[in-house]
Design goal:
Length: 411
Amino acid sequence: MFKYVSLAIPIFIVMIAIEALVSWLRRDENYRFTDAITNLSLGLGQTVIDALLKTVLILLYIIVYDHVALVQLPDNWVTFVTMLLLYDFIYYWFHRFSHRINFLWAVHIVHHSSEDFNFTVALRQAWLHKTVAFMFFAPFPFLGVSPIMFAYINAFQTLYQFWLHTKYIGKLGPLEWIFVTPSHHRVHHSFAPEHLDKNFGGTLIIWDRLFGSFAEEKVSPIFGITKPVQTWNPLWANLHYWKDLFVMAYKTKKWKEKIQVFFRSPDWQPAYARKEKVKSNDLQDFKKFETPISPALGWYILLQFFIILFISLYILLNWTPFTFYEKLFLVILILWSLIQFGLLISQRTGVVLLELIRLGLFYIVLFHFLALWTNTLFMQIGGFLCTIILASWAYLSVRFQRVSMEEAVAK
């Protein structure tokens, strides 16, 4: 099922490039390289992790559909439309609960933690998303919805929500009453008080209008979360709120409150924490988190991202022949690469050594494992020289990055 969305990735990249060009022509700074590459890394990471998880989830779906479902609905447009309505209704409540229950918010917060709003934010997804989403959408195989029909419905919902993440589409007249539009979704991503916890719909906005969670875009949205994450590391973007929850549970004295930490709303605090002040974004003096980045490092990371993207697409589109352990190894290597981009930007200790090791591993994988091309001596020598050039580029770009950060501090 993951191939439907995987095949759309090139289209996403083209739309992102067009929107980034518009942003550059307008000089509105709607695209920042550091934020955009983190968003793309989170999206690609979720895609490859989903490929692993869906191997199990699809099997469970088929077992229930074949052996438990009382009926098996036909694969036609009537089933598609009715089940899409049901899916969107369930999605509304899943989304709403994800903002109001801490352990669900710990997953969903990843999507909201960007302080920009553009097409790359649509791809900024939690790596653990499928581990909680399946609980809400489990009724579909019991209702007799075929795996392929569910795949089409899920793909439609995913693809529809991509175009909602833009500043450049205004209000759309009568469509605003029925469908979720970019205007509605800008409100949803804003942490301004009048926008918090509003507009949870996926495709239809009617659920928000019916259940009292609708808000119109009347003031300029302020994007991000009330307690900024301030990192370019996609792994930490996934884990930071879990850390906060476990620290809170550890410090709490009462066992009842230790459990409540994970099931109460994000604005709830145990007794000890009500006396502490938590740093949050100040609407009066809000500044986006930023790290200066040298052009050399920026181009290096961009090139590396597209190399990882190409390899990932090849793996996803040729997924079946790999053994489970091969898949696991490849997914870990891809995730390491995506995490490495954030470490390079932030100049973490030992980042150069880690990058050199990563490049060496990818040389081995490309030429001796994936065999993407004829493995001749000439190709091996060429690949080795390319690896040496990239390693030198990585080393020098990190040196330039340190100079950029030192100059920023001096200012």
